Amino acid sequence: MKNTLYLSILFLASCASNMPSVTTPEIKPTKSDITIEDFKTHIEFLSSDELQGRGAGTEGDKIAVSYIKQRFYDAAPNKGKIEVQEHYVFKDRRQKKDKVLTYNVIGYLVGNDEKLKDEFVVIGGHYDSTENPPGKINNGADDNASGTSMVIELFEKFSATNNHKRTLVFMAFGGEELGLLGSKHFVNNPTIDLDNVQLMVNLDMIGRMEDNNVQLGGSATAENFSSILDPLLMEENVNVIELGEGIFSRSDHYNFYKKDIPVLFFFTGVHDDYHKPSDDAHKINYNGMKSISNMVEGIVEEFANTPDRLIFKSVDQEQTMPQPAKMKVTLGIMPDYSFDKKGIRADSIIENRPGQKAGMIDGDIVIKIKDIDVTDIYKYMEALSKIEPGTKTQMIILRDKEESFIPNRSSLNRTTSNLFGSVTNKFSENIEIGYNFSLDNDLSTLEYNGINTTMTLNNIVTKFNFIEENGERGDANIAGGSIAYSLDDKNSFSFSTRRNRKINLTEFYDLVYQYKNDCLTAGIKYKKNYYSDGAIKPTENILFTVTLFPLTTFEYDAEQDLKRYRNN
Fold this sequence. Notes:
Blueprint: E1 2-10, E2 12-13, E3 21-22, H1 36-46, H2 59-75, E4 80-92, E5 97-109, E6 120-126, H3 141-161, E7 167-173, H4 181-188, E8 197-203, E9 213-217, H5 225-232, E10 239-242, H6 253-257, E11 263-267, H7 286-305, E12 329-330, E13 333-335, E14 344-349, H8 354-357, E15 365-369, E16 372-373, H9 377-385, E17 392-400, E18 419-426, E19 431-439, E20 446-457, E21 460-471, E22 474-486, E23 491-500, E24 505-516, E25 520-529, E26 539-548, E27 553-557, H10 559-567
Parallel strand pairs: 6-7, 6-8, 8-11, 9-10
Antiparallel strand pairs: 1-17, 2-12, 3-10, 4-5, 5-7, 9-11, 13-14, 14-15, 15-16, 15-17, 18-19, 19-20, 20-21, 21-22, 22-23, 23-24, 24-25, 25-26, 26-27
Helix pairs in contact: 1-3, 1-7, 2-3
């Protein structure tokens, strides 16, 4: 059930409309031995059907990680330190469903200056691609096998030359397409001192250069950038289009920027194959990548060696999505790029922009702007490109109930309420059965029904429950049970489990020992949790609990100690 809203929008001129461009002089002799064939080798492998799109938590994800890790090892067998940082992500982050394991691959090249080696320059790009449509593969050659291949090659180059005073940290992030989750995990769990990071360079979609143009974001995030950076941007036959004073927030550099780290973001623009199965290796402009790599190499080398520290500068203005379309206006939303249905879903709304002023909220889905049906990002861009600043137009959005301000189970928007019922029958002192149900507010649908049984035999208590749901909260088919055994009036053991019959998965096992007297309850609990994705290892916890009456409860989780024991 969706509500359709009609919004009148007054569009303002976007900050991208006045982007300065710099035309550089003739090309200079290259200083890099990175070749076009090097890029081609990496991209063709990473974007092959064998890797199935490199989605988070997939087998292709693991293959990509192994490949990147091996290339790092091969390049610096004795000089570098290589590690893989594991982190969990939700594939559906709004509903917090489908928890999967993904990775950040990190390669370190220690600086050759005793003083500056404790400072860092980070070079990164995400290796994952978007979720595959039914029956097809989003190989993601440009997004972002291109950036990953450049990270690999620059690691190999700097490992060979060893011409850097500061330590260089090369990163391939996982989970970017789900919300910049790999880089977010790193900055929240850093392996280096973030206060000593001189610069973060992000390479995302740098494989489709047109007319020798490359777009550059972040050049306003350091007070002293221009004096050092400007000459470096003129060393290749490349037109550098700087993205203004704002910060583009939908790629991995943004998480570093939020930690007060100067950033640079290289990007060659959105194209018709963006987030589509047609983003393949044969469409990559390898000569363009070569030119960009030469430029980035020079920038990294300069900021890795200059004695001057960059001074971070915050910027207030949000950059719009860099793209070739001649967009004169912006709506002021951050699209949810994991959304795979028709329309553009707003992941978040930027304050004081046309969308917010018109009443849009997070989760709204744009389906029509003026007379254009917005089916995907390209139609969205097309619609905005036809609107003049200062004009009004009509937009149609869909707003899910679950995305509105009214809670799922609220009856505030209803004229009738659900009907609830409960029946309990105690057949004997030892057997009790209960039944609970809920009918929809129009009394036509059985939304919920559950059976609970309790059977007692001497000092053994057995319970069984069954739940079936078909309603606003989703659907479920769950069976669970427990058995408790009392040794005496103070000591007892219990075991419980639950099975999700809808996905044919046992969700957990619990084993508990408990001691109880008049002033003390103490227990030991072992719990094992399973995830819907079988590739994720189940988690195990050992909990020690002590309750002193009438004082307080003490609890100790031995999970980390358990992991250490098993690793040893």
